[in-house]
Design goal:
By secondary structure, this protein is an alpha+beta fold. 33% of the residues lie in helices and 19% in strands. The chain has a six-stranded mixed β-sheet, with helices on both faces. It has a five-stranded antiparallel β-sheet with strand order 6-5-4-1-7, with no helix packed on it. Strands 8-22-23 form a three-stranded antiparallel β-sheet. The protein contains 13 helices and 23 strands. The chain folds into four domains: 5-105, Roll (SH3 type barrels); 109-226 and 512-531, no CATH class; 240-449, Rossmann fold (3-Layer(aba) Sandwich); 539-675.
């Protein structure tokens, strides 16, 4: 039986409408940023934003503050602008939010507070003019101290600063500790002013969840740091893990024996002080590649896991068997990076509130170009790997006349990976002219370092009365430097511990101006260039994966071009590698007229607008050819180091912000700016 057309047609139209509507919903994507092909518009929500099905509907629920949303639509209704947003790019779970309850975010650059030991708490100013007035007049330190004390009094009394008061927020002070490393907060950058040579003024938002019990509360009324969640009882001493990572190649026997003596004395002192259960020691030995020289027995070796003074017998028994190698390694440099990475990855740092690696060596790390190195990590990447586990690295570099040609490379490498605070890097060079006195000098410096570390750690006074008095760059003995570094290490760990104990959080200030340097330390006859914030780029897991793929294509293309007789085909080789590695080769619409690598379309668009100089994006065919083989290899190796770091970032689940548990591709990570290509 055939139905008449007038009966079939309505059903067909209905099916088409339903199908097309469903297809439209599936294909709907966020709005693109102007001039971009792959980057969507994003906003960050304020603590007073709500979910709504429609602008005219009643609020359904409060939105978790500082959530990142993609923008799907904007509407002006009766003079008020509304933004349609979604937590992902698949067009699902959309909501409408008032535009004054979000901040447009055109870049993915964010700030994180820098190491707190050695600098003043950062102040957030209402207007740039207020900040500029402080920075351009004499008496900067006195002015900042006065504002800090006055604002702190307002915080303690619950007083809301008036419009005439220049400060609207403050980083938690030293009594509250530092913000724990696993606290995810956002300080996006919206604008900046660099008219002063020494410092940048940054227009930022400071957004963290805060107290969600009253989401209607305006942000301007919530300038406090940690909501007064102070610990009722004085905190106990932080639990500390110290790992000695020592070079055990030829010539290191006196220092191996000295380290044994140092640990014995430390254990004895801990027992005498009644503090034996709070400090643990571990020991890792390293040499170099067994592939290059099998007779050296090992590249790295965990001699002892962490033990405390109550179990010192097993630790000392393990150390008693450690001896220097019987044969030489293939290079004067040794694989110290392998030793450090073994300590980071193979020791159990989980029980500790803070960790310290003391690297002891008379040589620099194997060069990136050494084919026998165990890891591709650059020194700066090693610093990032340690920071992920709240580990601080300090290096005791034994500089002998025999290694003079290696000293500069060693210093540059170790300064890039060690702990830094207040302009001081935890790199201690020991000038050893007489080998018989070298172990004595080493012992003296190491004892000083550890004693000052323990002293600063034991003090529960949050005021830095034990802080170094010397100025970085001023003449001082290496022993005084070791004392300063030990105090800074202990103070840094203590601040982190206080921050965790007090659940310290960033100030809840939506918009303000800050200085990227400690203004008080820039003043005087011996100015110190100390950062208050570090720059990072917020990437989703999908973006990090895409960046890894792009970097892999550049590395592969560079290696192909490096092996070719005609070096001018670098761009062609990169384009070919990109197409080979891509799941969808069509995504790489390579620009044939590109003059720079960044213009080819191989790298991700989000790198284009970042206000920093990228050697990778700006490289041209001519520059590649002019590099020569050695620099070309260095270029490739540096990219490999960053690619290795991206893998570690991907696995660093503690520091991913999981706004959407079901969609891991939208999880967010703060990648340090210097780790981008």
């Amino acid at each position: 039986m055939r139905l008449p057309l007038y009966k079939i047609l309505p059903a067909l139209i209905l099916c088409l409408v339903v199908f097309s509507g469903s297809l439209w919903a599936q294909e709907r994507k966020p709005l693109l940023m102007e001039g971009k092909k792959t980057i969507y518009q994003k906003v960050i929500t304020h603590p007073n934003a709500f979910y709504r099905d429609d602008p005219s509907a009643e609020p359904k629920a409060a939105i978790t503050p500082f959530s990142v949303f993609y923008v799907y639509d904007r509407k002006d209704i009766n003079g008020r602008v509304w933004v349609q947003c979604g937590p992902n790019t698949n067009g699902q779970n959309l909501t409408w939010i008032r535009s004054d309850r979000v901040s447009d975010w055109k870049q993915s650059m964010v700030l994180v507070f820098s190491e707190k030991a050695g600098r003043s708490p950062l102040l957030f100013f209402r207007r740039m003019a207020d900040l500029e007035t402080i920075a351009t007049n004499p008496g900067i330190k006195n002015a900042l101290d006065a504002l800090t004390k006055q604002f702190k009094r307002m915080q303690d009394s619950g007083e809301v600063p008036g419009d005439d008061f220049p400060v609207i927020g403050m980083e938690p002070d030293n009594s509250e500790g530092a913000i724990p490393s696993d606290t995810f907060y956002l300080i996006p950058i919206f604008n900046y002013d660099d008219s002063l040579r020494e410092v940048k003024f940054l227009d930022v938002a400071t957004i963290n969840p805060g107290n969600l019990n009253n989401p209607d509360t305006m942000v301007s009324q919530l300038p406090t740091g940690n909501d007064g969640n102070q610990s009722a009882q004085p905190p106990k001493q932080p639990k500390l893990g110290i790992a000695f990572v020592i070079d055990t190649t030829i010539s290191m026997q006196p220092y191996i024996e000295a380290t044994r003596d140092i640990t014995r004395r430390l254990y004895k002192a801990l027992l005498a002080s009644g503090n034996a259960e709070n400090t643990y020691l571990a020991f890792v030995a390293f040499r170099s590649s067994m592939k290059a020289q099998p007779a050296i027995e090992y590249t790295t070796k965990v001699i002892s896991q962490f033990t405390n003074a109550l179990d010192r017998a097993s630790f000392e028994a393990a150390l008693s068997k450690v001896e220097e190698a019987k044969v030489s390694t293939h290079s004067f440099s040794e694989d110290s990076i392998a030793g450090i990475m073994t300590a980071i990855n193979d020791l159990n740092w989980e029980p500790f509130d803070g960790g310290v690696i003391i690297l002891i060596t008379d040589a620099g790390p194997l060069d990136l170009s050494d084919k026998f190195k165990k890891h591709d990590y650059t020194p700066r990447a090693v610093f990032e790997m340690a920071s992920q586990k709240n580990i601080r690295i300090v290096t005791l570099h034994i500089k002998t006349p025999q290694g003079e040609k290696n000293h500069r490379q060693a210093r540059d490498s170790y300064e890039a990976m060690v702990f830094e605070s207040g302009g001081t890097r935890a790199y201690i060079p020991l000038e050893i002219e007489d080998p018989t006195l070298g172990a004595q000098l080493f012992t003296k410096h190491t004892d000083t370092l550890i004693q000052n570390l323990e002293s600063a750690l034991r003090s529960l006074d949050p005021v830095p009365s034990d802080m170094p008095k010397s100025q970085p760059g001023s003449p001082q003995t290496s022993e005084a430097s070791a004392a300063d570094i030990g105090a800074l290490l202990g103070y840094s760990i203590r601040l982190d511990y206080l921050g965790t104990t007090n659940a310290t959080s960033p100030p809840r200030v939506v918009r303000s101006w800050i200085a990227d340097k400690d203004l008080a330390l820039l003043e005087g006859d011996s100015p110190r260039d100390v950062r208050t914030v570090d720059v990072a780029v917020l990437l989703s897991r999908n973006q990090l994966a895409a960046l890894s793929q792009s970097l892999g294509a550049i590395i592969k293309g560079a290696e192909q071009a490096r092996l070719n007789e005609t070096p001018m085909d670098f761009f062609e080789a990169v384009a070919s590698a990109a197409a080979q590695l891509a799941r969808d080769p069509k995504q790489y619409a390579v620009n044939p007229s590109a003059q720079k690598l960044g213009e080819m379309g191989v790298l991700e668009e989000f790198l284009e607008d970042l206000p920093y100089k990228s050697d990778v994006m700006n490289i041209t065919e001519q520059q590649w050819a002019a590099m020569g083989p050695v620099r070309q290899d260095q270029f490739i190796l540096e990219l490999k180091g960053k690619l290795s770091a991206y893998e570690s970032f991907n696995n660093d689940t503690l520091h991913w912000a999981k706004f959407d548990e079901k969609n891991s591709g939208e999880w967010l990570y703060r990648v340090p700016l210097h780790m981008l290509p």
